[in-house]
Amino acid sequence: MAISRDKKNALVSEMSETLAGAKMTVFAQYQGLSVADIQELRAAAREAGVVIKVVKNRLVRVAMESTDTYKDTDTTALNGQLLYAISSEDEVAPAQVLDKFAKTHPALQFAGAFSGEGATLSADEVKALAGLPSKNQLVAQVVAQLLSPVHDVTNALSGNLHALLDGVEAKATS
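Predicted structure:
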């Protein structure tokens, strides 16, 4: 059944708004996945703050042309049945969500991505992104590194204080 012109215009405007606020848009081939698999992916993505869209590539191209950031972006990689994972919060989250899902559903294959600046990334670059820690993990690592000297100083002072108390206790008992 064909989609009406009004519905297509609504899809294009919705996709344009989504792309305009996106930090990363990863697209992947999903041929061979069932509807239940796609619903499972959408649920996992929702938890990570990622939106999964299944839209015709032609409509995505029109949406990209109407968005200033993506006007000059190369869209030749948009071929076949693609789904789009979009995040407006984290650059790495869409790649991580799809990569984690692809481990249990090998029918899902990365096809590429568009950065928030309009750059096109290859499937290999997306796989490399998926291996990076998330923004929250990076913040936690930085905080741990910043607190490390404080913990070292506290442990050193604590050790000397314990040695002094042990010495005083030894003198008192003898």
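Summary: The chain has a mean pLDDT of 85.
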